[in-house]
From TrEMBL:
Family indicated by similarity: Belongs to the peptidase S58 family.
Domain of life: Bacteria
Transmembrane regions: none
GO molecular function: aminopeptidase activity
Protein name: P1 family peptidase
Provenance organism: Gordonia jinghuaiqii
Pfam families (UniProt xref): Peptidase_S58
Amino acid sequence: MSTYGRPARVGDRITDIAGITVGHDHRIDADARVAGSPDAPDGHGWATGTTVIRVSAPGAVAAVDVRGGGPGTRETDLLDPSNTVQTAHAFVLSGGSAYGLAAADGVMRALEDEGVGLPLDDRGHVVPIVPAAVIFDLPVGAWDRRPDADFGADAVRAARPDFAVGCVGAGAGARAGALKGGVGTASTTIEAGPAAGVTVGALIVANPVGAVIDPQTGLPWDCGEADLAGLGLRRPGSADIAHLADLEAKHTVLNTTIGVVATDAVLDAAMTKRVAMAGHDGLGRAIRPAHSPLDGDTIFAVATCEVSPEEAVPTPAGMHHDVAVVAEVCRVAADVVQRAIVDAVLAAESVAAIPTYAEAAPSALV
């Protein structure tokens, strides 16, 4: 494994939720080249990987919402709230387009070796539930260099609370419009209101068709002064804004953004799906346009069901009894997804000569 990425910040990462761990496996060659470049018309070298979000909470409830027009997924039908199985033992986010779905086989194998999965008899046999989604990164590096089952097995075995963001795991070959994309994360603990004490976090692989940078400002979309301070950014000079616009004219049109939103709130399957849906609101804030016919935008959600509000909020007869809690969790879910996408782009390092935001707009860095 190549050395890439920076550590995710404690207190602002998906693993701030107990029962969630993250592991990466990737391969990046120093001489990787994007297909179509003058010295590598068919691409060259490795620049891809797999990220696994492992769920060890015994009462976890899982869901998914798919909005892109070109998704590559596995086990998403299983997560419909009307179906029987309502949990997941791990989520796989992988490069390699549809080929990369093979990484989930390795995750299942590794979990089975540990005895983790749905127990279906009295002899210790289990079936791990491992939903997966992939990004299209095949032109970054050689077309036939893509994750397989071994990537998945190594990633799930590497899962821990401390993990890296940037050009790691499934973000190794990611592109965000014209810029280098990657893996990003964020989390928030709700301090007041009906969901006080609940934590919501996200991990996103940012690989969109759309732009993550506002061409008018040269900054992430809707980035106010307070946001600039928190991100370590300032308003870039006009030359850098023009450079970003020139790059955007050359961006790729075959991409996808995928990820997981997690919360420790006690939610049922239908309300967990609402959280996945709200995650797409954050995707729409951070990427423009989002959910295009050429994206495969997919967001999984998981509720570990460990934290209940201290006081129930009365609801009218006929309404879901947790609607006040769900509304707050959904509000925060959109926010952490937006911040995770920005985190991915700011943490990215150059791979296969794809420019990073820092390289394209150095005047924006404090």
